[in-house]
Amino acid sequence: MKHRATVLCIRQDCLLLVAKRGGRWAIPGGRRKRDEVLSRAAARELCEETQLTAYRVDYLFQFWGAHTRHFVFAAQLSPGAEARPDNEIARCRWVKLRDVSRLPASIPTKAIVQYLLRSRSSLHRLQWIAEEYENDPLTEEPLEAHDASHDVSAPTV
User: Fold this and answer.
1) Nearest Cα to Cα of residue 153 among 72, 78, 45
2) Is 144 in a helix, a strand, or coil?
3) The Nudix hydrolase domain covers which part of the protein (predicted)?
4) Predicted confidence band at 82 (pLDDT cuts at 50, 70, 90)?
5) pTM of the predicted protein model
6) Which of 45, 97, 104, 114 is deepest in the core (most CB within 10 A)?
7) What value does the CA radius of gyration of the chain take, rounded to a whole number of Å?
């Protein structure tokens, strides 16, 4: 099974989605590199795909897809930061959470958003986070809130 760091960026009631050329909409994220902490992978993938630098990344929950285990994080962005597609990403778009189900989006994206909408506590945590987890869910190593702005391995904008 693949492991993926999936990064939720929420502004008001909108979620940031990305799409590859000719692809479905998806929540930003991707695989972690060897020995990379999941929170750093989340920050790195967000920056690689959208040119956004998260100043904080917090672990929220896990979502199990058919072939992929998603470690879902919430990213805090600077208020005026703008997403710009980069690398394999062709489009970035802020979408109202309730409208994601009507888009041509990936199955995990629709399922994660549906979970957020049904679970008011998770949605409330996104608006903003009280960290409950002490260990990285994959490595069991101590997990600290990751400040991506001081991460030398994360690309900067």
Assistant:
1) 45
2) coil
3) 1-118
4) very high
5) 0.78
6) 45
7) 14
